[in-house]
């Protein structure tokens, strides 16, 4: 019995950690896919860090006139350590206006709020756990 409980506990722990990674990867993808794109710089300036409270000031470079910045890669499930804090940030000075003030006409005013509410309510994690038959 103890061996079975240990195996079950380990399997649940691994499934939960994988679900955290999957939820974070989906959040990263949704933010990047949902970002308004003019030059692409804003979308390319989303970065994910782990285990830090200081997200830094990294941003994508401004593209040459008439060109766009390619879409950035999204986090893949399995990247990162689910035991560490995950931070997804955009340090462009106008990012707050694009995310919360309806500054872009290319996306709905609440695009970022919808994603944030989904994260805060635990829906990303619920979906990841459900995909593994948990919950």
Q: Could you give a quick summary of the protein structure above?
A:
46% of the residues lie in helices and 7% in strands. It has 135 residues and is mainly alpha-helical.
Q: Unreliable stretches, pLDDT < 50, 5 or more residues?
A: none
- Into which percentage range does the β-strand content fall? 5-15%
Strand order of the largest sheet: 1-2
Helix/sheet category: mainly alpha
Q: Termini distance?
A: 23 Å
User: What is the gyration radius calculated from CA atoms?
Assistant: 18 Å
Globally, the shape reads elongated
The biggest beta sheet is recorded as: 2 strands, antiparallel
The beta-strand count equals 2
Mean pLDDT: 91
Number of helices: 5
Helix content: 40-55%
Using brief descriptors, characterize the structure shown:
single chain, mainly alpha, two-stranded antiparallel sheet, elongated, 2 strands, 135 residues
Describe the fold and architecture:
By secondary structure, the protein is mainly α. The protein is built from five helices and two strands. The protein has helices at 2-34, 41-44, 95-100, 111-120, 123-131, and strands at 46-50, 86-90. Strands 1-2 form a two-stranded antiparallel ribbon. Helix 1 packs antiparallel against helix 4 (111-120) and helix 1 (2-34) packs across helix 5. It starts with a helix and ends with a helix.
């Amino acid at each position: 019995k103890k061996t079975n409980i240990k195996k079950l506990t380990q399997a649940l722990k691994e499934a939960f950690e994988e679900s955290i990674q999957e939820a974070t990867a989906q959040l990263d993808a949704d933010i990047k896919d949902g970002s308004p794109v003019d030059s692409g710089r804003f979308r390319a300036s989303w970065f994910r860090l782990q285990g830090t409270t200081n997200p830094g000031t990294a941003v994508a470079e401004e593209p040459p006139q008439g060109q766009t910045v390619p879409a950035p890669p999204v986090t893949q499930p399995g990247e990162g350590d689910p035991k560490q804090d995950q931070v997804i940030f955009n340090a462009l000075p106008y990012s707050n206006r694009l995310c919360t003030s309806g500054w872009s006409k290319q996306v709905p005013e609440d695009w970022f709020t919808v994603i944030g509410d989904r994260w805060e309510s635990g829906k990303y994690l619920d979906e990841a756990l459900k995909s593994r038959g948990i919950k």
